[in-house]
Amino acid sequence: MRQFDVVIVGAGLAGSMSASMIARAGHSVAIVDPNEVYPDEFRCEKIDFGQIEVLHRAGIGDAILTAATHDKSAWVTRLGRLVEKRPSDQLGIDYGRLVNTVRAQIPEEAVFIRGKVTGVENSEDLQRVTLASGESLAARLVIMASGLSNSLRQSLGMDRKDLSLCHSVTYGFDVEPEAGGSFPFRALSHYGEHPRFRVAYLTLFPIGSRLRANLFVYRDLGDPWLRAFRAAPEETLKAALPRLESITGPLRVIGPVKMRPIDLYETSGYRQPGVVLVGDAFATACPAAGTGARKAIVDAERLCNGFVAQWLATPGMGAEKISEFYDDVVKSGSDRKSQALAWRMKAMALDESAAWWLRRWASVGVGLARWASYALRSIRVDGVKPARETVRDRTQEAPSELKDQAISAAGQI
Ligand SMILES: Cc1cc2nc3c(=O)[nH]c(=O)nc-3n(C[C@H](O)[C@H](O)[C@H](O)COP(=O)(O)OP(=O)(O)OC[C@H]3O[C@@H](n4cnc5c(N)ncnc54)[C@H](O)[C@@H]3O)c2cc1C
Question: What is the pLDDT at residue 311?
Answer without folding.
Answer: 98
